[in-house]
TrEMBL record:
Name of the protein described by the UniProt record: NADP-dependent 3-hydroxy acid dehydrogenase YdfG
Residue span(s) of domain Ketoreductase: 27-204
SUPFAM superfamilies reported in the protein's UniProt record: NAD(P)-binding Rossmann-fold domains
Biological source species: Bifidobacterium commune
InterPro entries cross-referenced by the UniProt entry: KR_dom, NAD(P)-bd_dom_sf, SDR_fam
Domain of life from the UniProt record: Bacteria
Family label: Belongs to the short-chain dehydrogenases/reductases (SDR) family.
Protein's UniProt keywords contain Oxidoreductase: yes
Keywords (A to Z) from UniProt: Oxidoreductase
GO terms of molecular function: oxidoreductase activity, acting on the CH-OH group of donors, NAD or NADP as acceptor
Amino acid sequence: MVGTQAGITAEYEGKSEIRLGNTITSKRAVVTGASSGIGRATVLQLASAGWKVVALARRRDKLVELSDQLGDACEYVVCDLTDEASTQEAVNRILRGGPVKALVNCAGGAIGQDPIEECNIDDWRNMYEVNVLGTLRITKKLLPALKQAPGGGTVVVVSSVAGIEPYEGGAGYCAAKSAERVLAQVLRFEQVGQPLRVIDVSPGMVRTEEFSLNRFHGDRAKADAVYEGVPDPLTGDDIAECIEWALDLPDSVDVDSLVVRPRAQASAHRVYREG
């Protein structure tokens, strides 16, 4: 079966599949978008910190690599979060594997950087499906299990500073990430008093292997130009460390919103470049 997410097409067998390790722990996290970038880095970081991680993505080969690398610390589920049946089947399999303490929503992406007058409506629709509805779909389905976790559960939404500071050519992505941040904020309002933390992590300029390349439809020159001259942009590992720090705080401590930028970035419009 073929699914498309944020401009990436991948083949996978069936709607979802899972490989379970041999250990069940109450410190068990589900990470979406686990095949690359911040999601993959988060899987590795949490596993190194003693978490049992369930890695979700559409690309089976990438998930198998992670699972083989981490052994019993990592389970995987092949799942398309833009598909209702695939997501429900994945959730059913996850819950059969044990309790869920945390959900880290990393799946997402940007497509294009055209001004509104010239934008592609399908690109906007795809960004909304992945960044907003994909996050909503998996979060809604796992909420009951998260609230039943020992000590309570945590939802992490990895949005973006683009959801706070809109910029020219980024209206579609900025709108999607703004909606994702609002989803986290309202969920926090609605669940106050419940055994649930909701954490929004808004990264600034993060250099990963695929984000900008996907945004510019595989144009390597345009993708590289995004980071040209910027000393030490953030990496996926940087954001993963922040996520693990927030998750491993006491259950009573909720980091509502965490904005993380490289030192060279003051805002979406203000970036220092050498040369």
